[in-house]
Amino acid sequence: MDYPVTYERKVRFSDSDAQGIVFNGNYLTYFDDTITDYLEATGIGCDEMTRRVIDLVLGRAEVDFRAAGQIGDTLVTGAKVVEIGRTSVIFEMHTWDKPTGQTVAEGRLIQVMVDHRTHRPTPVPDWFVDAVERLQRSPSRRHATAPDPSPEPTRRTSSPTLDPGKLRPGG
Fold first, then answer.
1. Is the per-residue pLDDT at 166 higher than 50?
2. What is the CA radius of gyration of the chain?
3. How many Å apart are CA 125 and CA 87, to the nearest integer?
4. Using CA atoms, how far apart are residues 141 and 123, in angstroms rounded to an integer?
5. How far is the C-alpha of 77 from the C-alpha of 34, rounded, in Å?
6. What's the pLDDT at 45?
């Protein structure tokens, strides 16, 4: 598997559902943990993103399930950036069983670069692109002049209990 960053996790009882397999939503947690490790490997990390008043928030997630992870399995998730748009970063994700190499899940996450103060999309800075290229040892597929493939982060305004101005970005 050709991924510059991997995250390894032994499947615990708390990861499983009533069927005794990994609950499908947990693969997104594995993906998110892997992206956190990816950012740290670039030298950026959460502290640096906060210092520069930017963050990545999940705009879209796609997961294809290929096999069932079970309690006791050791799963490895790999991440790599496959495209950088004007305000988005697209990660390819792949989770496999460590001993057998069998693919368990594959995914694609579109992360949107946002300004910490406004929570609005902001252009992906060149220093971020440079860090990705150093880590992956290859030029990124940057499309600075092409339309951005990422949707704007969704904000629910119809709920009387939700104030969109106070949403905290995650991921």
1. no
2. 17
3. 9
4. 15
5. 7
6. 87
